[in-house]
C-alpha cells in the first residue's frame, strides 16, 4: 500500500511478473549479453575464441569450489579499431555494402508501391478477394531458401524464362541477371519482391480497412477524385502502418543472407555479396572471429539506426499524447 491506501503498482499482476522472470533473464543473458560480448571481441585480434581476455583472481576457495573475478584485461588481445579499419579497407565489404544499399533502396520503394497498389485494388470489394489475397500472400509462407532456388531455376538462361521466350521465336531475347555481375543484385531483388510484397499488401490492406467509411463518403460527396483521396487523406492517416512496415522491411533487408546463398552464393565472383554473408564466411569459414564480429557490429549499428527512431516515434509520441 502507498500513502493513499491504494495498492502499490509494483505488486499488480505479481504472478504474471514472476512468470516473466525466466524470459527476461534469458533475454538479458542471450541477447544483451551476446551483443556486449560480440562488441567487445570485435576489438580483438582473435582468429578463434580468445584463450584469455581477462586476468582472473580467486575471490575465495571453499574445498573444491572457488569464485574468480576479472581484475584486469590482457591488452595484447586488443587491437583497438584495427579490425574496423581493415573491414572498411576490404573491397569485398565495400561491395557488400553497395549491394545492400541498392537492394535495400529498391526493395523499400517497390515493396511500398506495389504493396499499396495491390491493397488498394483489393480494398474495392472485388469478387474472389480471399482467393487473390491468398495467392499473393502465399510466397511469404515459403522460406528464402525455397524462394531462392525457385528463382534460380526461373532465371537460368538454359531452361528458365530466357529459354521459354526464345523457344517462342524471340531468339535474340536475353534475360540472365544472375549470370551478369553488373545486374545480379537486381535478379535477387526480383525474388525478394515476389516473396515479401504479399506481407506488405496485407499490412496496407489492414490499414485501409481501418479508415472510417464516412471519410470516403464525404470525399465522394465533395467530388474529390479517388487518387486525391488516397494521396492527401488516406495515406497521411496510415502513418503508423507505414512506420511499422518500414521497420519490418528495413530489418529484413539488413539481415538478408539465405536468399543470396540459395540464388548466387555471392557470385559471380563477389558481385552479389551482402554483409550477413561476409560475417558468416569470416566467422565460420575464414576462422577470423575478430573481423566477423566487427562486421556484425556494423550490422547491429545499422539496425539500431532504424529501430531507435521508430521506437521514439512510436512510443515517445504516445507518452507525449
Topology order in helix (H) and strand (E) letters: HEEHHHHHHHHHHHH
Strand content: 5-15%
Q: Please tell me how large the radius of gyration is.
A: 26 Å
Note the quaternary state here: single chain
Estimate the global geometry from the Cα principal axes.
flat
CATH hierarchy, class of the largest domain: Mainly Alpha
Alpha carbon gap, first and last residue: 29 Å
Helix content: 55-70%
CATH superfamily of the largest domain: MetI-like
Short description:
With 321 residues, the protein is mainly α. Helix content is 64%, strand content 6%.
Write a structural description:
The longest helix has 32 residues, at 91-122. This protein folds into three domains: 1-41, no CATH class; 51-80, no CATH class; 82-320, MetI-like (MetI-like fold, Orthogonal Bundle), CATH 1.10.3720. By secondary structure, it is mainly α. The protein has a two-stranded antiparallel sheet. A hairpin with a 2-residue loop joins strand 1 (54-62) and strand 2. 23% of the residues are buried. The chain is built from 13 helices and two strands, in the order H-E-E-H-H-H-H-H-H-H-H-H-H-H-H. The protein has helices at residues 14-41, 82-88, 91-122, 129-137, 144-154, 161-167, 184-209, 213-221, 226-237, 239-254, 258-263, 275-285, 289-320, and strands spanning 54-62, 65-73. The mean pLDDT is 83. Helix 10 packs antiparallel against helix 13.
Task: Give the topology.
Layout: H1 14-41, E1 54-62, E2 65-73, H2 82-88, H3 91-122, H4 129-137, H5 144-154, H6 161-167, H7 184-209, H8 213-221, H9 226-237, H10 239-254, H11 258-263, H12 275-285, H13 289-320
Antiparallel strand pairs: 1-2
Helix pairs in contact: 1-13, 2-13, 3-7, 3-10, 5-7, 10-13, 12-13
Amino acid at each position: 500500500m502507498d500513502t493513499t491506501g491504494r495498492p502499490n503498482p509494483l505488486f499488480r499482476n505479481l504472478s504474471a511478473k514472476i512468470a516473466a522472470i525466466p524470459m527476461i533473464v534469458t533475454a538479458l543473458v542471450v541477447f544483451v549479453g551476446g551483443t556486449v560480448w560480440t562488441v567487445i571481441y570485435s576489438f580483438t585480434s582473435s582468429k578463434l575464441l580468445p584463450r584469455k581476455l581477462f586476468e582472473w583472481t580467486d575471490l575465495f576457495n571453499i574445498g573444491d569450489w572457488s569464485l574468480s573475478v576479472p581484475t584486469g584485461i590482457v591488452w595484447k588481445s586488443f587491437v583497438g579499431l584495427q579490425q574496423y579499419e581493415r573491414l572498411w579497407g576490404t573491397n569485398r565489404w565495400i561491395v557488400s555494402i553497395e549491394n545492400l544499399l541498392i537492394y535495400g533502396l529498391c526493395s523499400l520503394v517497390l515493396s511500398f508501391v506495389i504493396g499499396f497498389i495491390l491493397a488498394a485494388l483489393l480494398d474495392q470489394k472485388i469478387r474472389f478477394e480471399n482467393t487473390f489475397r491468398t495467392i499473393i500472400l502465399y510466397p511469404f509462407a515459403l522460406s528464402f531458401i525455397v524462394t531462392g532456388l525457385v528463382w534460380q531455376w526461373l532465371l537460368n538462361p538454359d531452361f528458365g524464362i530466357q529459354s521459354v521466350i526464345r523457344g517462342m521465336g524471340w531468339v535474340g531475347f536475353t534475360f540472365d541477371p544472375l549470370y551478369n555481375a553488373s545486374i545480379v543484385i537486381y535478379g535477387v531483388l526480383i525474388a525478394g519482391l515476389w516473396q515479401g510484397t504479399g506481407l506488405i499488401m496485407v499490412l496496407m490492406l489492414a490499414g485501409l480497412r481501418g479508415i472510417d467509411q464516412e471519410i470516403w463518403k464525404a470525399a465522394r460527396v465533395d467530388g474529390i477524385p479517388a487518387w486525391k483521396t488516397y494521396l492527401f487523406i488516406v495515406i497521411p492517416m496510415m502513418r503508423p502502418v507505414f512506420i511499422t512496415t518500414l521497420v519490418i522491411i528495413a530489418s529484413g533487408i539488413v539481415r538478408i543472407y539465405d536468399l543470396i546463398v540459395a540464388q548466387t552464393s555471392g557470385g559471380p565472383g563477389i558481385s552479389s555479396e551482402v554483409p550477413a554473408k561476409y560475417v558468416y564466411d569470416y566467422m565460420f569459414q575464414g576462422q577470423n572471429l575478430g573481423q566477423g564480429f566487427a562486421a556484425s557490429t556494423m550490422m547491429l549499428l545499422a539496425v539500431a539506426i532504424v529501430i531507435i527512431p521508430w521506437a521514439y516515434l512510436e512510443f515517445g509520441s504516445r507518452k507525449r499524447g
